[in-house]
Design a protein that fits this description.
It contains eight helices and seven strands. It has 247 residues and is α/β, with parallel strands linked by helices. The chain has one domain: NAD(P)-binding Rossmann-like Domain (Rossmann fold, 3-Layer(aba) Sandwich), CATH 3.40.50.720. Strands 3-2-1-4-5-6-7 form a seven-stranded parallel beta sheet, with helices on both faces. Helix 5 links the parallel strand 5 and strand 6. The radius of gyration is 17 Å and the shape is globular.
Length: 247
Amino acid sequence: MAGALEGTTAVVTGASSGIGEATARALAGAGARVALLARRRERLDALVGELDGAVVHEVDVTDDDAVARTLEDVARDLGGIDVLVNDAGYGSMVPALEADLAEWHRMVDVNVTGVLATTHAALPHLVRAAQGPRGVADVVTISSVAGRKVASGKVNVYAATKHAVNAFSEALRQELAARHVRVGLVEPGLVRSEMTEGSGAAEDAEASMELGLMEPEDIADAVLYMVTRPRRAAVNEMLVRPTEQVR
């Protein structure tokens, strides 16, 4: 898909690792100028040198004002925003009776409030971009299989946050369809990431799956597919699991 996004600007949150990093690479490979957003500046600086035309913005998606300023800067400096990928996320898989309330708040702040803040700041630019030569703009949010089905009691608040962004995305899709802003969800199953490796889920899956977990690049491929469809076609939801994942 080289050149499919030539002349566009894409914003990727959570771009310092995992799915966000892989998605930034994929979009840049298709010709987009990519704004890399995350809290860990040193990781962004390491990535930006590999991507032509990319820029770095150190920002916490839970800081509404900082997010709004950052997206205004991106739109001003790069000529607009054509694609937004909401990837920044946080997960803590602990039974409710053992949970730290602060961890619950953190998941809501990052997974829900962060998506709302970034999307709200990007929307005027996306609507404007859809009126330009490409004739369409895109919002893609990385949700989870947990946004469809609660497979374990341990996913409690994490699943709740993903159900919330799924509902928000569907309402947004209905509102923006006539404005040619496509709204999509990618719902991964088990992916090798800091979250799954830190929780032990990756190790457990490797022990039980001959083919193993998905890699971040598998999800980046799904995002790239969504945003490079002809303007007449919108892929609104994509569930991607490892071949052997049952739930």
